[in-house]
Design brief:
Blueprint lengths: L12 H5 L25 E2 L7 E2 L8 E6 L6 H12 L1 H6 L2 E7 L3 H11 L6 E3 L6 H6 L10 E6 L5 E7 L7 H9 L4
Parallel strand pairs: 3-4, 4-5
Antiparallel strand pairs: 1-2, 3-6, 6-7
Length: about 180
């Protein structure tokens, strides 16, 4: 019996809102920073209204810079809410997450409302487009950032870098383990 199949239906309306980019090459950028170097400082607009400057955390918090490629994609929409579940693990290691994407603030507003309240600042690297991602060497040629984690210690030094396959969430256990190494 030939016939056509009905398309698979998403489990929830939220899944229907996500854009599936399909298979993407894992890496097409070149890192411009190294472990042990000072993290390039930046100031980016934050979803909560006040701009956020990386150096404001110097001497106070370890910082996990979480670059994600794009709002409304499945892996990105899973990664950051996962950090909500692990909030106590970050806080116990004196760490704050800074979520960074090249999307604009209105897009980030709609996306984070769909995901639910996030406990960490969500920053827009929209204009000049991807300037911070470019400084760190994780801006892809198609205009989105790589999926990357940079851990910056309280002295402002990069202590860990992970650039992941764009279609895979970085391992949270590894991130927490790297933060453990920073304990006094």
């Amino acid at each position: 019996l030939g016939g056509s199949r009905a398309p698979a239906q998403p489990a929830t309306w939220q899944e229907d809102m996500l854009y599936d980019p399909g298979p993407l090459a894992p890496i097409d950028s070149r890192l411009k920073v190294r472990v042990g170097e000072p993290a390039p400082d930046f100031t980016l607009p934050a979803l909560h209204g006040e701009p956020v400057t990386l150096s404001r955390y110097r001497g106070q918090k370890n910082v996990v810079l979480s670059f994600v490629p794009a709002a409304w994609t499945p892996v990105c929409s899973d990664q950051w809410p996962g950090y909500n579940l692990a909030r106590a693990l970050f806080e116990a290691r004196d760490a704050i997450v800074l979520g960074i994407t090249v999307d604009n603030l209105p897009t980030l507003h709609a996306w984070t409302r769909q995901m639910g309240q996030l406990w960490f600042p969500v920053l827009s690297d929209f204009w000049p487009h991807g300037a911070v991602a470019e400084r760190y060497g994780v801006l892809r040629s198609d205009g989105v950032s790589e999926r990357a984690i940079f851990i910056v210690d309280q002295r402002g030094l990069i202590r860990y870098i992970e650039v992941s396959d764009i279609n895979r969430r970085p391992d949270l256990e590894t991130c927490i383990g790297e933060l453990e190494k920073l304990a006094p």
